[in-house]
Specification:
The chain contains two helices and 34 strands. It is mostly beta strands. The longest helix is centred in the last third of the chain and has 10 residues.
């Protein structure tokens, strides 16, 4: 899927501004000339607006650095007045300035990485639901649910991200979405994402494949079917690649003694040389459209391999995954993906809070997909889809690093975006 959402970030560069002098002298870093200083026990900034922009300089017209999550407390390292902000600008990290209009000084400690929810077994950041076949109505207040005019209407198949579930005054259960709507759970179905995950190439070798067919045929040897009581591995199982052989213009892969599969039943990640843009032992990501696989590298050494679903289009089609070497230009914990603004769309979709998003070419990115199980086959509108588990791993592994309490981050010269090659 390709995002048409408004990303509140933009790639640019600027010179650093960092209030290190006062800190080195043990003095409070906040004391803009002509303004009363903040109390000395203030150590953080609590974010009061969702996805509050963070800039590389204290200027609302300056280049973006990322965004802060609502409710997070970021470390307060310095204060400075600047354009476009009614209050002072707060320094919350290296080259990271936040307008005080969107944050409140706090005496509480900055949000710790330990305070963030651990990754779930499924890789999803929270509970998600699909809207049922009859659609549903959303209410702005739980008290109004099924009693007052709705605030919104969602179509069948839309996906919502849920903050919590409560019982309304009618006794029915309602879920509060991250968009602030209360939806009756009777109209929703919980999302159960595929829990498949790729493998870590511990020895730096690519020696396994992934079964991508239901009911694959087992062979005792190439071209000779195995006995009926011998079953092929199930779809999405990871199997060793022990030997390959051609027989009557067909390719077979041995995965155990006396057990072969047709190569068409498998996706086997293949080693590749680093692109010229990769320097030294730099991390980079290789996406193979022919194999529908992704391999993460450190230099020439593969470290992780998995299945993907790339764009269903070819060449210059709007739904084709763009070929070439790119760099991740922004990472977002979640972002909405929708085509509701396209008047020519034959079918509308809206997926709230798509997780672990890394855009590498305009609106094309790598992200988790919980709405299908077609990994190993083209499926997307141009993005590179992974299971949420794999997307979470890759999101944490690839640059730039997302600081605690941030909802989005852009690269810098000292923390660049990871290379992505699509071939």
């Amino acid at each position: 899927m390709r995002s048409r959402a408004s990303l509140r970030v933009a790639l640019s560069v600027a010179s650093p501004l960092f209030a290190a002098g006062a800190l080195a002298q043990g003095l409070p870093p906040w004391a803009p000339e002509g303004r009363p200083p903040l109390p000395e026990d203030v150590v953080s900034v609590e974010i009061t607006r969702p996805d509050e922009p963070i800039f590389r300089t204290p200027d609302v017209h300056g280049p973006r650095r990322g965004a802060a999550a609502l409710g997070a407390r970021l470390p307060l390292l310095g204060v400075k007045p600047g354009p476009g902000c009614k209050r002072d600008w707060f320094l919350v990290g290296p080259e990271a300035w936040l307008c005080g209009d969107g944050g409140a000084p706090s005496g509480a400690a900055p949000t710790s990485a330990d305070a963030e929810p651990p990754p779930s077994e499924s890789g999803m950041p929270r509970a998600y639901y699909f809207v049922g076949k009859d659609g549903t109505l959303g209410y702005g207040d739980l008290h109004d649910a099924d009693r007052a005019p709705p605030k919104g209407e969602l179509q069948a198949g839309f996906a919502v991200s849920m903050k919590r579930v409560e019982r309304g005054e009618t006794g029915e259960s309602y879920g509060l979405t991250t968009k602030g709507l209360w939806l009756p759970l009777r109209d929703l179905a919980p999302v159960v994402p595929l829990r498949f995950s790729g493998y870590r190439a511990e020895a730096g070798t690519l020696d396994r494949g992934f079964v991508v067919e239901d009911g694959a045929t087992a062979y005792a040897e190439p071209g000779k079917k195995a006995k009926r009581d011998v079953r092929a591995p199930a779809r999405f199982e990871t199997v060793p690649v022990l030997e390959t052989r051609e027989e009557k213009s067909r390719s077979y892969v041995r995965i155990a003694d006396g057990l072969w599969l047709e190569a068409t039943s498998l996706r086997i990640p293949k080693p590749s040389t680093p692109p010229d843009e990769a320097k030294g032992g730099e991390r980079w990501i290789d996406v193979s459209l022919a194999d529908e696989t992704l391999v993460a590298y450190e230099g020439s050494r593969p470290v992780f391999a998995t299945l993907v679903s790339t764009g269903i289009g070819k060449g210059q089609a709007e739904t084709a995954t763009p070929l070439g070497v790119h760099r991740i230009w922004v990472k977002l914990k979640t972002t909405d993906m929708t085509n509701l603004e396209d008047p020519e769309a034959a079918h509308y979709y809206a997926m709230e809070e798509v997780p672990w998003v890394m855009f590498f070419e305009k609106g094309f990115g790598i992200h988790g997909a919980f709405w299908h199980r077609s990994f190993g086959h083209p499926r997307s509108h141009g993005c590179v889809n992974l299971t949420p588990r794999d997307a979470r791993f890759l999101f944490d592994w690839a640059g730039p690093h997302l600081p605690t309490g941030w909802s989005a981050v852009l690269p810098t010269e000292w923390d660049p975006g990871t290379l992505v090659r699509v071939r």
